[in-house]
Sequence to fold (386 residues):
Amino acid sequence: MKIGIHDIAAATGSLVLDLSELAEHTGTDIAKFQRGLGQFEMSISTEDDDIVTMAARATKQIIDRHGTDGIRTVMFATETGVDQSKSAGVFLHGLLGLPANTRVVELKEACYSATAALQFAAGIVARKPKEKVLVIASDTARYELGSSGEPTQGCGAIAMLISANPAVLEIEPAAGLWTSDVMDFWRPNDRSTALVDGHYSMQVYLESVEGAWHDFRAAGGAEFADIDYFCYHQPFTKMAVKAHRKLTEVAQAANPDASVASLEETMIYNRRIGNSYTASVFYALLSLLDNAEDVTGKRVALFSYGSGAVAELFTGIVPAGYQAHLRRDENRRMLDARTTIGYGEYRDRHIKFDQTGAYDTAVESDGPYRFAGVVDNKRQYVTVAS
Ligand code: COA
Fold:
């Protein structure tokens, strides 16, 4: 039985900062961001939009198309959760009016956990082939103003429906795993911005590529030459290029330059969104599916990395007819329709993000879901009547 991604949908913040603004105001050569990091824009959320409402916008597209029949599990992957105890998935369950007979859970391991969710979901479907699982990755990547991570911020959500006989990607059983207890990136409970040892995190990422690849091969995974495309976690898109160069060495690829060039279509969305942590590797996949001419029958590898650190490499085959299940125009429109803001507004919003206590948020988003603020220590989510 084939199991995998039956549908995939995206959402991101409705505002955008062009990195040339950030370069100008921080006295940085824009070439560092564009050529050095491979980043051009960053998505930013309005005050009344967060990881839950972004996730709800992405998931709604799947529910509108497929309904909720057979969905008995929701896995919400995030490293920027809104509550230490309650799953962001339960807020989402409420907003979308999902059936009461559903198991809902939040998973965390930096940028990696949506990949674990995908594998857990495949296990559920293998056991109960009529069931479907919603896997959602949603994050807001934030670093301190003036820090080296600042140009790599962003936000985004990806929702996926995992089922038998999938229309978009048939996941193959072999997976390469790698874990090491390191402090390359972390966010203590009392902080809203991440702490990062940036260059060390790049080094650990590259070590994990090698480790996960060897395990993938030992687990019976495909040879390098039999993999057509590679989608990497992209904290900044240049990281995918560095990672793939490393893999071409480790796997002794016959034509490394051509292989690196084949990453191009996987980086189109993340260059404009910035880092979306758990969603990033799936944005790379979506970017490939939406922007490559025709990848029918091709084998795609996904490399997922979460600092701390856990990595996994796995592959899938794109089935015939996948194009009919995409939302190419909607996804491009979503990026083009974002409102451009200047450096001053970006800075104000960054500072205001840290509100505590009771507060209302300004009505900024045009729906269908809003984060309305905090009352009695309870986050308020509302559905906006259309
Ligand atoms: N023109 C062109 N390229 C330039 C440049 C210029 N004027 N100035 C710098 N660059 C290049 C550098 O050579 C470097 O490229 P290289 O790595 O291929 O040599 C790149 O731009 C970044 O410059 P660097 O000095 O390393 O940047 P930095 O120290 O300010 O920060 C990160 C880079 C990635 C460490 C930082 O953005 C960060 O901490 N990000 C968050 C953590 C992260 O994403 N980790 C990745 C693994 S999860």
User: Anything to note?
Assistant: Residues 77 and 114 are 5 Å apart (CA to CA). Residues 29, 31-32, 35-37, 148-149, 152, 196, 198-199, 201-202, 205, 235-236, 239, 307 surround coenzyme A (CB under 6 Å). DSSP finds twelve helices and 17 strands in the chain. The mean pLDDT is 97.
